[in-house]
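User: Hello, can you help with two protein structures?

Assistant: Certainly.
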Amino acid sequence: MADLLARAAAWLDGVRRGHLSQTVIYERDDRSVEVAATIGQKSYEVADAYGASVWVESTDFLVTAADLVLAGIETLPEAGDRIRVAAGDKERIFEVMAPGPGMSHYRAADPYRTAWRVHTKHVDTEG
């Protein structure tokens, strides 16, 4: 019998992609792919270089793991990758990075690794 929860996670990810996402461009070096992403924000409390607590805002992109294909190979998010988001006649650019020291730049969005939650910071606007 197939894992009912895994099937439900896949179904839920399909609903998210179909109704709660927009097309963005995920880039690494000279390779890119269009993916459906759900955009969110999250605040993290992290320690700065002096040990003081500061709040950091991250723009997170939920993307289906199987959609993140660069040069024909399903890949994991890497720090330094870029995500381009159309915003009217401009394009907002986000860089994949960890929200703070000792933290990862992405994590699984569900226990079955159906989708990734990719942490980014807005770095530029073009147009």
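That covers the first. Now for the second protein you mentioned:
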Amino acid sequence: MREIKFRAWDYRNKKMETVHKLEWEEKLWINDKGGGWGSPHIEIMQYTGLKDKNGKEIYAKDCLGGVFECLYIDWCDKQGGWELFTGGNECMACMGEIHWWEVVENKDLEVIGNIYENPELIK
């Protein structure tokens, strides 16, 4: 079974935060900092359960190098799994291109940033 972990991008402070605790009441609260799910200043990203060639954990919204340029990983509801997306928010698998699982087999896969701290990587 894969480990379930999250991180959160704080738009206000422009900082990536580790999520240590999630609580559910009327809203989902993150880290006891007052940022709730659906809050316009917090974006939660889930760990995919996979690591890159350097052992770095791959999270949703991570930009991947060593395969293609300008692609990032995210959940595709239509495909029902993690897939690669273009800078235009188009799922590569839905476009008939490549599936995430085909890329995982590539041993040169590397996290080179994420869409929040490195937006230039997907333009």
